[in-house]
Amino acid sequence: MSRRVRRKVARKGKEKVVLPGCPEVEDEVLGLSQIGFANWTSLPDDTVIQLFSCLNYRDRASLSSTCRTWRVLGASPSLWTSLDLRAHKCDSAMAASLASRCVNLQKLRFRGAESADAVIHFQARNLREISGDYCRKITDATLSVIVARHEVLESLQLGPDFCERISSDAIKAIALCCSKLKKLRLSGIRDVNGDAINALAKHCPQLTDLGFIDCLNIDEMALANVISVRFLSVAGTSNMKWGVVSHHWPKLPNLIGLDVSRTDIGSATVSRLLSASQKLKVLCALNCPVPEQDINLTSTKNKGKLLLAHFTDILKDIASLFVDIAKKGRDVFLDWRSLKSNDKNLNETMTWLEWILSHSLLRIAESNQLGLDAFWLKQGAALLLNLMQSSQEDVQERAATGLATFVVIDDENASIDGGRAEAVMRDGGIRLLLNLAKSWREGLQSEAAKAIANLSVNANVAKAVAEEGGITILSGLARSMNRLVAEEAAGGLWNLSVGEEHKGAIAEAGGVKALVDLIFKWSTGGDGVLERAAGALANLAADDKCSTEVAGSGGVHALVMLARNCKFEGVQEQAARALANLAAHGDSNTNNAAVGQEAGALEALVQLTHSPHEGVRQEAAGALWNLSFDDRNREAIAAAGGVEALVALAQSCSNASPGLQERAAGALWGLSVSEANSIAIGREGGVAPLIALARSDAEDVHETAAGALWNLAFNPGNALRIVEEGGVPALVHLCSSSVSKMARFMAALALAYMFDGRMDEYALVGTSSEGMSKSVNLDGARRMALKHIDAFVLTFSDQQAFAAAAASSAPAALGQVTDSARITEAGHLRCSGAEIGRFVAMLRNSSSVLKACASFALLQFTIPGGRHASHHASLMQNTGAARVLRAAAAAATAPLAAKIFARIVLRNLEHHNIESSL
């Protein structure tokens, strides 16, 4: 996601200020800095004007408002000979406000039909060049008025997107109004008829550069009448009559360069053009399938004439034009510019080649054709890097865009071709792109940043970008007032922030604050920049230290604002993901509580669980899951309708992705920690969908569902619902078959809750016949459950270690049992006093299986080093659990596992008691 070329305006600190090509400015500023201050108002007028020339018109206008002197200098005619409006919406009102300064305007670039309509208000009678893109909606009427008001126009370019509403009538108007026209390039015209082309031939005698690119139909015979043309491009144009072309176009007396790339031209026509055209120097036929399959054509040598195609060595062939250059390396265009040749034909040919190659390479990259890997790796990437060093800004932009595009395999899934990306890196492309990103031209900045962003999906390239100072550059561009520049820079930071090693560097470079500020700056009308900024912040928030900085920079408020107000699903998804990551550090910072306390945050996330877009629902549920770890948030989520929303989400996600299923179950698990929420989830119908998720083959899904069912089963009403909904077989299956120890553990604990006797009392409420029916069903379910709980506990019972522990009270013997029984992940579980009390009570249960299960659970919760082990030990000591544990350890009728596990829990309690007293 990125783009291009460079003049360095200034550096921070006490370094020397460098303005290449402007030594007088350098000396002036240096002299002032050496005496410790810079009085900018005392600078000579020509120095101020030179500085102004490095700014876009918006920043120039801002500086002009600082004082009267600069206001006068800011209006200097020399500053307003060229104007680039592409980055800004330009309507008639803006055009009218600029009109007084644009009297001497000679070059104009714009974007979109609205800007085209505004061009007529500039009253720039001396306008020589007009270039527009995103021109699909420009009409014949608009174009006709533009050319009628700018009769001295010499160059008109509209593209590369298709000009679908422009017809031959507008082309005739161009011919009639612009007799001094030298260059005309139009893209995507449906039909260019003979009358229009003949009008150009008749009324534009200086027309030397003509391009009808990606058109549907053109009159080949009429083009043969434009005898002034020296460079002609019909690249991408369909329905060509190649017989007419081969017969008539060789007669064009001045034709030097011809571009037929991306067409179905045949080998015979190629051969005829090369052999019969008297002055033709270059025939460009990139990505033309027929000639590429002709072995005879590939071996043909045409003396003094170049055929540029995928099967030729393009750079080497272009270098052959330099008769005065002995060294012909891969930097062909750079070598040509260094030559400073006075050969007009050569200079015009090379300039045209840069343009048509950049255009065709971009189009080929956009098509993402199969079978072009060899071309891109051998010479396509090198060509784009050459073109990035062009003196033509539009060529540089297209080359950078081409680099951003040709590496992409799947845009939707953000996957790129690693080989292509690393080829760019090996050829020095990263440094070239970063230099372009430092240009004062905003078009180059945005395209270079886009290329850097896409290439940085590759970890090796991302490392190179960081090492070359790219993070600082992108963080600076993210502060740009130009939305396109800021958007692409944010995209670069998004991709770079995937790497853990880059997160800290982004924060140090001020990237976090820049990204947060972007959200406030473009809170409306900037979906692209908002999605990228939120995505980058989401990645950064996954790091503990960076998450604190995100919150401290106003990130919580910014992200909640997006979650509440933005309607674009990409922004919603990334904002919810960022809030989820911010809330994931509850034990190390206060972000979890801060998100929950932000006005409207919980309500917005609950609402997003109803989104029609799965990614949004998934991230919103994930955020609610993380937030539910905070007691106040847990109750506030329920008050905001979270229980109903998440139950509905769980009910609807049976065919959804495992990620959504896991988060839906996880959010219900988090809420069910509260007894009131647990009861509400059961009443809302949450049991059935959680049982369905517990049957999932995806480990993360069934593990999380088991955790939710464990919490729900604590309530006897929910426990009965689990039985009635067929939950016992599902939990039994998990308990015995899941590859996840945690899933098996929590399934066993859920079954233990269900059959420790409390559900029986609840089940007896009702009619006697109904009670009898349930009693019979419960007996069968109990036997099944206890059998598998027993089997589960035995899988952690090393009989040899048990025998050694039974025969000896040595710590080493107990430690061996602990090591074999330990479930590491269980140390992250946090139980309430009521839950710990329930397991202590099970130690008195008549069932030997439940005794063993309870002692095994308490062992897991109190093992030293566990995240909440001290908390659990404190709860047990406060309730007198030690006495019950000693009785269990000494009971003659208790199973060996229960007795050994109870002894280990007692030892754990002694450890925590000693630790707390130190």
Describe the structure.
By secondary structure, this protein is mainly alpha-helical. 61% of the residues lie in helices and 5% in strands. Strand 10, helix 12 and strand 11 form a beta-alpha-beta unit. Helix 30 packs across helix 33, helix 34 runs parallel beside helix 37 and helix 43 crosses helix 49.
Keywords:
single chain; 918 residues; mainly alpha; 52 helices; 14 strands; 5% strand
Mean pLDDT: 88
In total, how many beta strands?
14
Helix-strand category: mainly alpha
CA-based gyration radius: 37 Å
Short description:
This protein has 918 residues and is mainly alpha-helical.
Secondary-structure topology with pairs:
Blueprint: H1 23-34, H2 45-52, H3 57-64, H4 68-74, E1 82-84, H5 92-98, E2 107-111, H6 113-119, E3 129-133, H7 140-149, E4 155-158, H8 168-177, E5 183-187, E6 191-192, H9 194-203, E7 209-213, E8 217-218, H10 220-223, E9 231-233, H11 242-248, E10 257-259, H12 267-276, E11 282-284, H13 289-292, H14 295-298, E12 306-308, H15 314-319, H16 332-339, H17 344-367, H18 373-387, H19 393-406, E13 408-410, E14 415-416, H20 418-426, H21 429-437, H22 442-455, H23 459-467, H24 470-477, H25 483-496, H26 500-508, H27 511-521, H28 527-541, H29 544-552, H30 555-565, H31 569-582, H32 591-597, H33 601-608, H34 614-627, H35 631-639, H36 642-652, H37 658-671, H38 675-683, H39 687-694, H40 699-713, H41 716-724, H42 727-737, H43 741-754, H44 758-763, H45 768-794, H46 799-807, H47 811-821, H48 833-842, H49 848-862, H50 869-878, H51 881-890, H52 896-917
Parallel strand pairs: 1-2, 2-3, 3-4, 4-5, 5-7, 6-8, 7-9, 9-10, 10-11, 11-12
Antiparallel strand pairs: 13-14
